[in-house]
Amino acid sequence: MSEKAPELKLVEELDQDEIEFNRLRCDLPGSAGTAAQGIVSIAVSKTPTKNEFFRTHPTFRPDLKLVNIEVGMEKQYFAVAPDMEVPLHGIGINFSKYTLYLTMSPGGAFHVIPIMVGSDNDYNRSKEYGLLDGVKRWVRLYTDQENKQYRVFPAPEGRFDEPQWPDLSVGKIGGLCFRDKGRLIDSTSHELFKKWAARDR
Question: What is the C-alpha separation between 134 and 51, in angstroms, rounded?
Answer without folding.
Answer: 14
